[in-house]
Amino acid sequence: MTRLALLATGGTIATRATAEGRAVAASARDLLGTVTGADTGVEVVPIDAAGRLSFAATLDDLAALARTVREACAEHDGVVVTHGTDTLEETAALLALTHDGATPVTLTGAQRPFDDPAPDGPGNLGAALRWAAHGRPGVTVTFAGRVLPAIGVRKVHTAALAAFAAPDRGPLASVDGAGVREHAVAPDAVLGDPPTTLPRVDVVAQYVGADAHALDAAMAAGARGVVVAAFGAGNATPAVVDSARRLLERGVPVVVASRTGAGAVEGLYAGGGADLARAGALFAGDLSPWQARLLLAVALASAPDDPVGAARAWAARTGVA
Ligand code: ASP
Predict the structure, then answer these.
(1) Does any domain span residue 57?
(2) What distance in angstroms lies between residue 251's CA and the mean position of ligand 1's atoms?
(3) Does 271 lie in the same domain as 122?
(4) End position of a domain, from candidates 182, 216, 245
(5) Candidates 81, 86, 154: which one to mutate for ligand 1, based on the most atoms within 8 Å of Cβ?
(6) Residue 188 domain-assigned?
(7) I need a labelling partner for 267 at 20 to 30 A (CA). Which of 109, 159, 198, 253 fits?
(8) What is residue 76's predicted lDDT score, i.e. its pLDDT?
(9) Which residue range forms the structural domain that includes residue 282?
(10) Does 208 share its domain with 285?
(11) pLDDT tens figures, 122-144
């Protein structure tokens, strides 16, 4: 018998309409009750791990969930996490960065609420359970019939049922009533243990004429590092390049990711990305700024003496950069 844990954390998949707007109202057991045609030989243990909308989660909530997943992995053959779609890609990154071992962990959710007349949650959860029972190690996202790697996944549509993609990487597998078809295997992405707390890392957006005030504010608020959500292939305004250079000289890690939505960053242009690269910024490959932020936070927590070195080695090992 294969034993799976279903960790429910909230999100649209568990919401019903209320006078104030959608609110979480369905438990792990309720969610499990919507899945039809469960595979024989699979036992699912429903566990209510949290009951929130994911846009309201804190870094401490994410760290606690990573520890809960680690515990669930020790006692089950696979773990399915139901989660709000808004920040699912960030939780997926943290779980992948802190998941050691062979237990499959997959996250899923829904674009339509629990009380929708044609909900997508039951199909997504059924596919996630089937994928977890299939036994492929690693952390993934199962959504709209596709299994995507946790590292590189992004929410790419606000409303469509196929809400997630891993641009330039593609799906690892397809899952439907007929079973599982595997296409690829993602590299092991562990970097450290589930943390008790994560250090503050801020993301600074680039837009035409952006000055350095957001970088300054991040430092004043106690950030231990920053991610620049850069233009295009990794460029920033002259003011932000100057400010980032000064931070790097002081030993503050600066990571460059792109605001574009797909593709890797490189230090190409004089005065922009090339200057950031020369100053020692870490270019985060095709990671979204939000996943790059968690990479730096986990690196700071797990390798405080050389977080940038640890993140660079991780990026090389996983093929990210
Ligand atoms: N829109 C979100 C969802 O799809 C709400 C959340 O992230 O919790 O679940």
Answers:
(1) yes
(2) 37
(3) no
(4) 182
(5) 86
(6) no
(7) 198
(8) 98
(9) 201-318
(10) yes
(11) 999 999 999 999 999 999 999 99
